[in-house]
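Why should sequence recovery work at all? Because a backbone constrains its sequence more than one might expect. Tight turns favour small or flexible residues, buried strands favour hydrophobic ones, and helices have their own preferences. The token representation captures these environments compactly. In the example below, the structure is given first.
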């Protein structure tokens, strides 16, 4: 089926609609030039401050655009560019706000470490390379076309490869970068291979065009449809670090600079999840029926849930014997990738249609508790000289308030009250129960219970083990990150309705994900 969608060039009004992305692009170029001309004696923290300002400015533009589109006159209008290849809708805007907030916190985390961390030799590059990575994540959230989606994915991936290798004189960082490049390239190849099959059987790269041609494609080329979607899901599984596609994450997390790891754990993972959700729903895959009357979409959504269950169980079981904190948090990220995949894999039923609300709420909670935990790890590892769990011994006596903040993050990661992680997991669990997916409910509960052991291992070290009596110093920028994340985690745990009502007020499945041309 030929793709009749005309490719329309960008006009000046269209450029204004992409103001957040363009702002980051202009700031990136300006900061590159500034870094070239600044003397080496000048601190690159100025570049970090300007990077932070550009991210907050882009977030403000996204917020203003979303408010303008939701003026109380009914469902918000969806703005499409380049023949509906790029969409400005509420789903994309909500995800962009999360990505920009996460990247801004990563910049703050870098500002607290760069002046003291001589292992990151290129301070200026560290800051401004986060901007094209954020642009790539934003492009992924708004893409309604396989080509623009892949461009956004590769833009984020390639800059991430460079960021992982920032510690050029560190052998472990070089090893991590090599493994990340190899696995990332393989996953991109899987995704591109799957896209080529979908284009071959539908004749379109537009998600809407694929959805229109999908029933005929399932009737005539059922096996190719399975291969296309299956390859793409496998490739995205690597990007999101969900078991059994997660092996790369342990070495990469251990070798990369801690702020970069925080970016990979939150922004990169969130952008990939946004893409998976948009592809599965905007193509109408859940309605695709094969010759026997069985839904092809049912198999794909079941595959997502199966990967989610494997990720939750493998991540938590493998973390039980892990003593390196970075590798432990990598396995925690594997398990959390499983939790985040559950609302995507549940599809839409008459009794369950809050998938996106559940996903965005838990992603926001995951952002706060994960970046907060990495911020605490940063100050602890700097004080003790390593990333092992024993470095947290006696932390309550060395930095009592930081230890209290870490307890908040651990409670949220474990899904215990009163924390954002508790309500995030609860909403997902109740959604799965309403959809009668009881087996995934059992996997979630079992995984959460198992995780208590290694999360409480931190608390045991901090409060029940003796260690050095030297006080741990907290740089102001890292202190801001820690307490912003702790306060946000508590607010989501005490008043979850604030975020839930905000999401429900602007997002709709029909308007944002199924209104495709």
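From this structural description, the recovered sequence reads:
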């Amino acid at each position: 089926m030929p793709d009749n969608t005309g490719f329309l060039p960008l006009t000046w009004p269209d450029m204004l609609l992409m103001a957040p992305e363009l702002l980051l692009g202009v700031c990136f170029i300006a900061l590159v030039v500034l870094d070239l001309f600044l003397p080496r004696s000048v601190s690159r923290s100025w570049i970090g401050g300007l990077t932070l300002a550009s991210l907050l400015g882009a977030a403000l533009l996204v917020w203003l655009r979303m408010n303008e589109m939701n003026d109380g006159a009914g469902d918000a209008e969806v703005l499409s560019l380049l023949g509906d290849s790029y969409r400005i809708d509420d789903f994309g805007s909500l995800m962009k706000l999360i990505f920009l907030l996460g990247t801004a916190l990563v910049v703050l985390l870098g500002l607290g470490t760069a002046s003291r961390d001589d292992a990151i030799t290129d301070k200026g590059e560290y800051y401004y390379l986060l901007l094209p990575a954020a642009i790539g994540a934003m492009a992924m959230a708004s893409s309604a076309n396989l080509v623009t989606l892949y461009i956004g994915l590769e833009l984020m991936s390639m800059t991430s490869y460079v960021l992982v290798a920032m510690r050029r004189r560190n052998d472990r960082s070089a090893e991590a970068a090599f493994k990340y490049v190899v696995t990332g390239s393989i996953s991109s190849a899987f995704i591109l291979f799957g896209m080529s099959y979908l284009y071959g059987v539908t004749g379109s790269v537009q998600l809407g065009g694929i959805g229109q041609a999908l029933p005929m494609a399932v009737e005539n080329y059922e096996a190719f449809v399975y291969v296309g979607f299956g390859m793409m899901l496998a490739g995205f599984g690597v990007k999101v670090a969900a078991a059994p596609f997660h092996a790369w994450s342990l070495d990469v997390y251990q070798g990369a600079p801690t702020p970069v790891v925080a970016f990979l754990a939150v922004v990169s993972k969130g952008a990939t999840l946004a893409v998976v959700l948009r592809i599965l729903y905007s193509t109408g895959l859940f309605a695709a029926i094969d010759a026997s009357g069985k839904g092809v979409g049912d198999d794909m959504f079941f595959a997502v849930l199966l990967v989610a269950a494997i990720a939750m169980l493998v991540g938590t079981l493998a973390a039980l014997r892990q003593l390196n904190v970075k590798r432990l948090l990598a396995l925690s990220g594997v398990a959390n990738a499983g939790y985040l995949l559950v609302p995507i894999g549940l599809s839409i039923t008459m009794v369950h249609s809050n998938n996106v609300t559940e996903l965005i709420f838990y992603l926001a909670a995951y952002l706060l508790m994960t970046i907060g935990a990495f911020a605490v790890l940063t100050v602890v590892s700097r004080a003790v000289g390593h990333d092992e769990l024993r470095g947290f011994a006696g932390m309550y006596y060395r930095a009592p308030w930081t230890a209290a903040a870490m307890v908040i993050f651990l409670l949220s990661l474990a899904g215990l009250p009163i924390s954002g992680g508790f309500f995030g997991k609860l909403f997902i669990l109740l959604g799965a129960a309403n959809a009668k997916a009881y087996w995934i409910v059992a996997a979630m509960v079992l995984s959460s219970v198992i995780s208590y052991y290694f999360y409480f291992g931190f608390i045991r070290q901090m409060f029940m083990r003796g260690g050095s009596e030297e006080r741990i110093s907290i740089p102001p920028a890292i202190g801001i990150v820690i307490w912003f994340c702790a306060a946000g985690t508590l607010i989501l745990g005490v008043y979850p309705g604030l975020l839930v009502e905000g999401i429900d007020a602007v997002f709709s499945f029909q308007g944002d994900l199924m209104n495709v041309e």
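A few observations help interpret the result. The first helix runs from residue 12 to 17.
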